[in-house]
Amino acid sequence: MTAILPLPPGSTLGILGGGQLGRMLAQAAAKLGFDVAILERETDAPAGRVAAHAIIGAYDDPLALNALAELADVVTFEFENVPAASVEALMALGVEVAPGPLALAVAQDRVDEKSFLNARGVATVAFAAADSPETAVAAAAAVGTPCLMKTRREGYDGKGQTWVEHAADAAKAFESLGARPVILEAAADFVRELSIIAARGRDGAIAVYPLAENHHEKGVLRRSVAPAEVSASAAEQAERIAARILTGLDYVGVIGIELFELKDGSLLVNEIAPRVHNTGHWTQDGCEVDQFEQHIRAVAGWPLGPTAARAQVEMLNLLGDEAAGWATYAAQPETRVHLYGKREAKPGRKMGHVNRILGSL
Ligand code: AMP
Hints:
This protein has about 350 residues and is α+β, with helices and mostly antiparallel strands. About 30% of the residues lie in helices and about 30% in strands.
């Protein structure tokens, strides 16, 4: 099917991925009058249970992709490791896929990502690529130690990365990460981690949310506060960075951009996520239009909505057993509970989040 844009209510929108981000996207799409078709690997996943259609299959299964293309005119995704070939297959079937293949390719490889950013005038830490124990040692010596070695592809939530204290240790570190192609990153001497959630519509319009301040534990986001207390210069820098990235990728949809704030007030980009982002969950209860609706509006070719904050919000992720405390949170008038309907509370698993309203703006 070829999409009519703007996509009229009553149409079916496809989402690759059945986790919590897919679930909240599906809920936002339903609010705008769309039916949602989810393609997911597992039956009973969080998103499939709130969608009109759930197709069960691998993301690169041609039958599953055909079934999705039969139902949906526009397809988006909830995670960045969608195979490029799947996107191409959907496009060949006449489906509009947003964000597009360039955004996916850039976000899937940490070296390509940083190279793209630097080429667009967006600063990152110094970095070097390696694909053998010898080149890893040379790369560590080039960026300086201590440095952080990360797999180029498929790392998330701090997985697939290890610190290297001395260049000579890089060979062992390379083996410990599975002898896969890696990036070595100079250590960012940051004072805070911030992020900016931004969106670009099909007409090229850009909208940015106020910045969030983020706190991680063992590489996993625990807590965000937004709007963060930032200088006007930090806000301007972040907006400029977002605009350069969105325009450079000819992007359509919501993007999450993780930032390091340095002592001198300058910002470096840590990484970009071509999708709705955990550090944007606060927008559900803090903003006029949240990141999920914004993403659906963008990919459906609708006008972007207002991004102004109406409240300052503290977002807490509920990991593993913490979601069992839902009744306590639900009894707090200033707290909004968001649960993902996951059946099993494995340790560290993102089961839900709460947004605590700190004050109206
Ligand atoms: P990432 O998987 O790249 O988002 O990294 C997870 C977390 O590791 C970040 O949120 C930072 O706290 C930390 N981190 C990542 N890269 C660096 C770096 N180059 N220097 C210092 N800390 C880093």
